[in-house]
Amino acid sequence: MVETQELYFAPEPLQQWAAGVLERKGMEPADALVVADVLVHSNLRGVDSHGVLRLPIYVGMIERGQINPRPKVEVVRETPATLLLECDLSIGHPRSVWAMERAIEKARQVGVGWAQLRNTAHQGALYYYSLMAARNDMVGMVLTATGPNVAPFGGSARGIGNSPFSFGAPAGKYPPLCLDVATSIVAYGKVRSAASRGEPIPEGWALDKDGNATVDPEAVVEGVLLPMGMHKGSGMAIMIEAIAGLVGGSPIIAPSLAGGEALPTEMRTPRGVGSVLLAMDIGAFADLAEYKAQTDEFIEQVKATRKAPGVEEILMPGEPEAITERRRTSEGIPLHPNLVRQLQELGQRVELAFPG
Asked: pTM here?
């Protein structure tokens, strides 16, 4: 009999435990705390594909040398508006937080701050960083190149990444607008999430290793995701590799394909990716109060348009996540029993008992 009843956990003990696990695998305490905060916050907002589900994956990557827990991070180049950061195969969360903080500082001085990360490992959910800018009354943008796990438009084998992007922008009386999407039909983490629950994936998400349509999430391990919007998602992924990967000197697609490494991240040899984090000071272009008033009016006018049958409310980008965050903050974070068992086993391996 398959268990489906989810178990609920308070965020603080979960975050402390996740940070402790990473520390026991050699990560600096400050870095481990940032990673744990991003993971648990993702669960709070309902982005479970990028929550604590990722922790066993990260531990495995550390053990295989695909994440450097003690990196030598260096600013390679810097101007008043830009910086290039060599991450030394660091996990991406703490580097991304630091880079967005610097981008925000630069934007306050010169209007725009552009941070480019080179040779970083997985960054987690990108919304976290674009929201940092939005909560500082700035527009935030994040682009991240990824290794090949998507078929290019017209193809049936891995040839491009599902390179995600995120935008954040403040509003007045409403939560910030925030979009975070992969350029594949669905984020690879959602396939992992389905696999952890023992559930099939919807038709149209992926192909198996022979290029046939599949609903088996395990078949996607050697198979391939499909791009969102056909040529549109494929084109976006190619441009993100050019901007986030190649500009910063961190190509991932061509070296991976040339080396026969068109495999899931945990199966590849160590190879970092590139990312862009941008902050734009709205006050450098417009009156901030007027902008917020116009954004509120924009939101209200869109939400007031005619709804499709069965739809109660038109939601803005980031609004479903904000609603989920409020609910889960009071009720706790739901985790599937299969995932709880995986985390308990991980706790046993590192000798740190899973909470609850």
From this structure: 0.93
pLDDT value of residue 201: 94
Q: What is the CATH number of the domain that holds 118?
A: 3.30.1370.60
Q: In this structure, what DSSP letter does residue 95 have?
A: H
In a domain, 313, yes or no: no
54: nearest Cα among 284, 265, 334, 332: 265
135: containing domain: 71-185+226-304
Q: What's the pLDDT score for residue 264?
A: 52
Domain total in the chain? 2
Residue 193 belongs to a domain:
no
Q: Which pLDDT does position 189 carry in this prediction?
A: 79
User: Is 48 domain-assigned?
Assistant: yes
Half-sphere exposure of 93 (CA within 13 A, CB side): 27
Q: Which of 8, 9, 24, 13 is nearest to 352 (CA)?
A: 24
The verdict on 81 and 65 lying in the same domain is no
The torsion angles phi and psi of 224, rounded to 5 degrees, stand at: -155, 140
Spatial distance between the Cα atoms of 97 and 113, rounded to a whole number of angstroms: 14
Do residues 150 and 227 touch, judged by C-beta distance below 8 A? yes
Rounded Cα gap, residues 185 and 205, in angstroms: 6
Average pLDDT, rounded, for the chain: 94
